[in-house]
Amino acid sequence: LRDMDGKEIMDEEEFELAILRNDDDNTDDEEESADVDNSAEKSLYDGNDWVGTYSRIDDDKFHFLSAHPDGGAIFHCVTIDDICYLKYGEKYLYTDPKHEMDYIFVGTEVPAKEKRVQIHYMNDGSISLTRWGGSVFYNCEWVKCSCGIIGLNEDNEELYWQEPMKLRIVKL
């Protein structure tokens, strides 16, 4: 795993995932865009969107990835059999093609091949995520601009026009 500057992320080294945004979101000119990349702000969290975790079930457990403007979850990676896995705490990030929701989940077991999350390095040094061997990139759909749902949308129009969610690794 490498950050945007090409520096290697070592196993167990902690980082956050900032969501890089573009400003083409069809808002009025005078309206603040939820998609503006304000990465030049003074504070680490000001103006940035971050990957975090979310639970729909009230059991104090985090079940899938989401996006938040106020700082994200702390991740790290581990390499097992030459495969890099992203982890949140002691839980692995995985996808489940058979699940009704196309989200990235967190679980305690090393994901089987069909449930792995694949990391793609983009031309600008960011990373994007797909299912293992997949060609549809994960995106972030904002809900009332307070949190975002990270998932797959296989709608042909969305695939053609929407750019993949790009992430920047921010070492801690």
UniProtKB/TrEMBL annotation:
Residues 25-35 have a biased composition (Acidic residues). It comes from the Eukaryota. Residues 19-39 are annotated as: Disordered. This is Uncharacterized protein. It comes from Coemansia guatemalensis. The lineage of its organism: Eukaryota, Fungi, Fungi incertae sedis, Zoopagomycota, Kickxellomycotina.
